[in-house]
Amino acid sequence: MKLLILYGLIAACLVCLLAYFGMTQALGAHPWWAFDVALFGAVPGILLAVGLAYVTRFALFFAAFDLALSGAIVWWGKRMFVVANGDNALAGQMWFFGWIAVCACAVAVIALLVQKIKSDAAQSPAN
Question: Are 103 and 41 contacting, i.e. CB atoms less than 8 angstroms apart?
Answer without folding.
Answer: yes
